[in-house]
Design goal:
mainly alpha, 434 Repressor (Amino-terminal Domain), two-stranded antiparallel sheet
């Protein structure tokens, strides 16, 4: 089982286990099991759904770094998890817009990207939006920022193509 799968299982405990999590995210239990075991790669929409229903942080689910968003307390000798109310959830529409920009940029540059790296790029871009104090309710600002993100990714990919050895090695 992958570390990612372990984090999904931990998050699932908050809602009653993997069977219940599968129901809540609208996914067959077997498919979720394949993601947890590492047999199938997770889609960004699943990561967002797991975060939404369990209170887990998207960044933590993807990377294992930072706060999980799940805090343990003991209640009547059974473990329970609480969501920290000061921590906001990722805006799914913004995440989807960022994911589309990352996908389209790599697709147009004819560069394939493993799903875990894809998710990391999406989470990093989202965190950058948050760090820059972008108003996530301003659709024009988000649209402009996503357009700039896609252009930046394309420039970075072109630079890497023109300057081999400055990024990932080609297979």
């Amino acid at each position: 089982m992958s570390d990612f799968g372990e984090r999904i299982k931990l998050a699932a405990e908050k809602v009653g286990g993997l069977n219940q999590l599968a129901k809540l995210v609208g996914m067959p239990r077997r498919t979720l099991g394949d993601v947890v075991s590492g047999k199938t790669e997770a889609k960004i929409s699943l990561v967002n759904d797991v975060a939404r229903v369990t209170g887990a942080k998207v960044h933590w689910l993807v990377t294992g770094k930072g706060r999980s968003g799940l805090e343990k307390i003991m209640v009547d000798e059974s473990e329970r998890y609480l969501v920290d109310p000061s921590d906001g959830m990722a805006d799914p529409d913004v995440m989807i817009g960022i994911a589309e920009a990352v996908r389209l940029a790599h697709e147009s540059a004819k560069v394939s990207l493993p799903s875990h790296r894809f998710m990391q790029l999406v989470v990093d871009a989202y965190n950058s939006f948050i760090a820059d104090d972008i108003d996530l309710s301003d659709e024009d600002e988000i649209g402009a920022r996503i357009t700039l993100l896609r252009k930046k990714i394309l420039r970075d990919l072109e630079y890497a193509r023109l300057h081999p050895g400055t990024g990932k090695q080609s297979a």
